[in-house]
Design a protein that fits this description.
Layout (H helix, E strand, L loop, with lengths): L10 H12 L6 E6 L3 E7 L2 E6 L5 H17 L5 E6 L4 E5 L3 H19 L18 H5 L5
InterPro entries: Dna2/Cas4_DUF83, PDDEXK-like_dom_sf
Protein name: DUF83 domain-containing protein
Organism: Aneurinibacillus aneurinilyticus ATCC 12856
C-alpha cells in the first residue's frame, strides 16, 4: 500500500493529539501500534478504547474500531470496543460480530480496488472534507 498518513500539521490532528494526551489517564495501555494496522488509543481490561472529540464521523469511527478489533482477533486477542466522544461525554460499546467481519473484508476489497486503479477516483467534495486531516492531500491544487 502507499502508506498515506494523516497530515501531521493538521489542526484536527493536533487537537486529537492533545485530547489523547489528556483523556483517560487511567487506561492500562495507551496509544498502542497494531503491526501495520494502525494505532489504538488504549486498552482498559476487556475493552479497546477509541477516543474522539465528537460523533461527527460516527459511522467511520465505528468501522475504525471494528477494524482494530478484527486485527486484534487475528492475533488471538479478543476484546470489545468502547467509542468515547469527549465533548459529548458519551461512550458506546462496540462488539465485533460475524457480519461486521464479512463487511470489513468487503471494505478492504473495495479499498484495494481503488488503490489498484491507474487514476484516482473523481474528486467529490463533501461538507465534512474541510475538517478532515487529509484535506490538503485531496484538494491540493484545487480552488475553493
Amino acid at each position: 500500500m502507499h502508506q498515506i498518513r494523516l497530515e501531521k500539521e493538521s489542526e484536527r490532528v493536533m487537537e486529537g493529539k492533545i485530547l489523547h494526551d489528556s483523556a483517560y489517564q487511567r487506561m492500562e495501555h495507551r496509544e498502542l501500534d497494531i503491526e501495520s494496522a494502525g494505532k489504538i488509543d488504549g486498552i482498559q481490561g476487556e475493552y479497546v478504547r477509541e477516543i474522539k472529540l465528537t460523533s461527527k464521523m460516527k459511522e467511520a469511527d465505528r468501522w475504525q474500531l471494528l477494524y482494530y478489533l478484527s486485527e486484534l482477533k487475528k492475533r488471538g486477542i479478543i476484546k470489545k470496543g468502547l467509542l468515547s466522544y469527549t465533548k459529548e461525554k458519551r461512550t458506546e460499546e462496540i462488539i465485533l460480530r460475524e457480519e461486521d467481519e464479512r463487511e470489513l473484508i468487503n471494505i478492504k476489497n473495495r479499498i484495494h480496488a481503488i488503490i489498484a486503479q491507474e487514476l484516482s477516483p473523481k474528486l467529490v467534495k463533501k461538507s465534512i472534507c474541510s475538517s478532515c486531516a487529509y484535506y490538503d492531500f485531496c484538494f491540493s491544487g484545487e480552488r475553493d
